[in-house]
Specification:
Elements: H1 2-27, E1 32-37, E2 43-46, E3 51-56, E4 61-65, E5 72-77, E6 85-91, E7 96-103, E8 111-113, H2 132-144, E9 153-156, E10 159-169, E11 172-181, E12 187-198, E13 210-211, E14 216-218, E15 223-224, E16 228-237, E17 245-253, E18 260-264, H3 266-269, E19 273-274
Parallel strand pairs: 1-7, 2-8, 10-19
Antiparallel strand pairs: 2-5, 3-6, 4-5, 6-7, 9-10, 10-11, 11-16, 12-13, 12-15, 12-17, 14-16, 17-18
Length: about 280
């Protein structure tokens, strides 16, 4: 009986560390989607938010935004000798989307739609009145402006999240936000989202949430290293907040729990600063 007991504890002590290692490995990964591309057909990837940047693992992977759309990426192969590679796409909500790319003469799926069911297949067309050069100029001015907005901040386990400026130009508002990492652990940004919510409802429902979709993200953040801080500017369609509601700005950590939320009332929006830039037309 003693011999059996010794064998049991020896096996248990051996298995438990392996289980811990396996869990740690899973928590450290980001799910990658698999797509197929060819030289003769175009694979369309439809994102729930506008595309900010694209990085290709192989230069023979050809990519472009669909004409007139901010959230559709078209992908083709330059030749049929492409080996398995990857594609990384950052969208305007701050999310990193990862893809494993393989060649197929006849791709199994030509249209890939990502995101929640409520947003799948949605196409966010570029409005004719949106001038991307103007948005970039406004974002830079908001980024470098010395005008500050105080009092809107949140902290959680060494991570500070602050709204320190709101600016406006024509039909867009520019929110300048700063993230500071005072901990010894890097902070990986998973999502940055904007919602108008009811103040008194403890349980949220779809009917009580109105999501404000970013138009552009300047100096977007994916990772804040230990003991560092970074500033970004998010362009949003002009809006105000109804009575008894507030704007929630949610910053979510990937593979972690240091989530932060700023709550903005309508009176704060009226502290907006006007941006003046030379006419580009």
């Amino acid at each position: 009986m003693k011999t059996i007991s010794k064998i049991f504890w020896a096996v248990a002590l051996f298995v438990m560390p392996l289980k811990g290692m396996a869990q740690e490995k899973v928590l450290g990964t980001i799910e990658a989607y698999r797509i197929q591309i060819s030289t003769d057909k175009t694979t369309n990837i439809i994102f729930p938010f506008g595309i900010v940047s694209v990085d290709r693992g192989d230069r023979h992977i050809l990519v472009q935004k669909a004409k007139g759309a901010e959230n559709i990426l078209q992908v083709k192969a330059a030749n049929d000798s492409i080996r398995e590679s990857n594609l990384s796409v950052i969208t305007s909500d701050g999310k990193l989307n990862s893809f494993i790319v393989t060649y197929a003469k006849q791709p199994a799926q030509l249209n890939v739609s990502l995101g929640d069911d409520a947003r799948k297949g949605a196409i966010f067309l570029s409005a004719d009145q949106i001038d991307h050069a103007e948005i970039l100029a406004c974002s830079k001015q908001a980024f470098h402006s010395r005008k500050r907005l105080g009092g809107i901040h949140e902290k959680n386990f060494g991570i500070g999240f602050r709204l320190d400026g709101i600016f406006i130009h024509k039909k867009l508002m520019y929110f300048r936000m700063r993230v500071e990492n005072r901990s010894n652990i890097g902070y990986d940004v998973d999502q940055l989202r904007f919602y108008i919510l009811d103040q008194k409802k403890a349980k949220r429902t779809a009917s009580q949430e109105v999501e404000v979709t970013p138009v552009n993200l300047f100096n977007g953040l994916t990772r804040i290293l230990p003991r560092e801080r970074s500033t970004m500017v998010v362009a949003l369609p002009k809006f105000t907040i109804p009575e008894k509601k507030f704007l929630a700005i949610q910053l979510m950590e990937g593979n972690g729990g240091r989530h932060l939320e700023l709550r903005i009332k309508n009176r704060i929006l009226f502290k907006v600063n006007q941006i003046n830039i030379p006419t580009t037309r």
